[in-house]
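If you are new to this repository, start here. Below is one unmodified record pulled from the training split, so you can see the exact layout before writing a loader.
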Amino acid sequence: MITAVDSNVLLDVLGADPTFGPPSSNALRIALRQGQLLACDVVWAEVAGSFASAAAAQNALKLLNLEFSALTIGAALEAGLAWKAYRQRGGARTRVTADFLIGAHALSQADRLLTRDRGFYRTYFKQLEILDPTAP
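And here is the target side for that same chain:
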């Protein structure tokens, strides 16, 4: 089982968030026992902004057994189609945002996505299995 991990879950754990850190950490452990953890280049970039250096960010992500997985051409195209659907529904963002890239990556290159952002991904990536670390 391949689990793609969203930035919010990683930031919960790495930032020791008092509310979301424990359930996110537990969900990461469970997902790792079930298979591989990976995150796309977009997630790595978002998380890196919380560290003093690129090396510190890379070391922290490696400690979580998180593998780097760049978007494929297919995932990038899928993100564009999801963004198009968003715009057709009246979405105001005029550029593709990180969430479209993260969702398309998970859909194309993993079996599921570990995230706390259920609404967006469920709307634009209906086929994607979502794991919410805070769900009962």
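Two things worth knowing about this chain: The chain has a mean pLDDT of 94. The chain has one domain: 2-131.
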